[in-house]
């Protein structure tokens, strides 16, 4: 603070010798200060400096910072955004996305459906970008508003560097709210599930449909992150399980489309505050979405993990 206050004085009275009469004591200093035209910030800096309060962290005396806002008294408060690591590359800051439940319909080999163990990870053709059609002999196609999902994987353990080669297994419900491999009538299907390896910049991109809203949950997408594509065949190798969601206005608009009738009433009965996953916040799990219901949407999200 002392250095900051000195900077303010030097800028206001360039060329003035502050030490000429400093030996006369605090009273003389105050008298001299009162003869000047000064901002409230400068006056407070001078008073604190004269009272020997240089140890106080009065950042408002500085005049620099990542952002500032007036506090109502003419002082600016500095705010700095902090991440989970000091970045050397990638985004400015990043944080590890929260761990969340995979829910009852993961299809990653950790539970069973009516046909036995449900494991999409080992299916032929499951490594893909377009999730709308089933693979491995199943022929169903999921209908709904087109949605492109683009996730940027960042390795927080390496200063937010792009997590090239990390792999995502992603799944979500149909526009009616059911899950392939589990729900009545679509147990034999495996659409809206897929695996993709991140490119050199850490990106994975999936083409799918906007998920419906079933009773008791906000619209959401599940995903697991694996360190490599080779390890994305067993859930034992996953390093992160999480979910993300969409802005409420986007969901409301999407659900005006054909086939989403039940989503309209289900969404009206739930909120982020009541959702058992997102009630503690969505800061790291809210996708940015552009587009329209008629043309389709594009959702993007940065996903921080430790690899």
Biggest sheet overview = 5 strands, mixed
Named CATH topology of the largest domain:
Protocatechuate 3,4-Dioxygenase, subunit A
Radius of gyration (CA) equals 28 Å
Instruction: Please write the string of helix (H) and strand (E) elements.
Output: HHHEEEEEEEEEEEHHEE
Number of self-contained structural domains: 2
**CATH top level label of the largest domain:** Mainly Beta
What structural class is derived from the secondary structure elements? alpha+beta
Number of H- or I-type helical stretches: 5
Share in helix? 10-25%
**Please, what is the oligomeric state?**
single chain
Number of strands: 13
Detail the poorly predicted runs.
Answer: 1-24, 26-92
Shape estimate: globular
